[in-house]
Amino acid sequence: MIIIGIAGGTGSGKTTVARKIMENFPKEKVALIPQDSYYKCAPAGLSLKELRLLNYDHPEAFDWELLHSHIADLKTGKAIEQPVYSILTCDRSNETIHVEPAEVIIVEGIMALYKKEIRDLMDLRIYVDADSDERLIRVIERDVIERGRTARIVMERYLRVLKPMHREFIEPTKEYADLIIPQGGENERAISIMRNYVRNLM
Hints:
Blueprint: E1 2-7, H1 14-22, E2 30-34, H2 48-52, H3 64-75, E3 80-86, E4 91-99, E5 104-108, H4 116-119, E6 124-128, H5 132-147, H6 151-170, E7 179-181, H7 188-201
Parallel strand pairs: 1-5, 1-6, 2-5, 6-7
Antiparallel strand pairs: 3-4
Helix pairs in contact: 5-6
């Protein structure tokens, strides 16, 4: 089994890189663990408007203990019940996703390389890098189309939360990466090198 961590800022192209790894293997041989599924349950008593104002780009927003436990279980051959988190309701669903151990486990998220205990479970650590302006454009496109937000709201949140959190918590994890992929998910040469490396590990 190979466990791959893929980190990088919001809108950097992490999901694209993960997808391009997954395309290279039969479906049953790869399992994806999105860090977004491991946001903590919503605090009781807050309205949806208040929940949307919380900082979801801070390390304290994640349930690290559960994420570590699930990766460790998969590594030892145990299946897990992955939580389902809704961006629209800012809370976990009552449903879970059953995930069986696979030859390749991909852990993908903005802080996938943040915790040493989780990094130590990984065989390959990747940081997807992208220009901040390009990341902002992708975030605007995604949030306007998929989440119904206005461009103004997205830019305000970017300046208030995403940008400072990226500098403080996400970008520093670049030093833990075995491989840095510049230009996001469009860097075909870097992705080709990464694919070959994964094949060799297998």
